[in-house]
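Write out the 3D structure for:
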Amino acid sequence: MIVERLPEVLSLPTEEKEILAEELLNQVVLERDKDPALVDLLRRRLSEHKANPESGVRWEQLRDRLLKRRHA
């Protein structure tokens, strides 16, 4: 087992193990579904955001707009 090679993982509290498992699963999904065009777009948008953080929208606002659009 891989976890035997990483004994420090076994000593983590349960909550941190759950977080680690979720992070690893997210990484696997990202690696499997890596679309170079999407990665490039996300990098450009991140650069734009760093250059002008006020131009963005908070997640809660975006979520609300999307939900309204979905239910319209």
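The radius of gyration is 18 Å.
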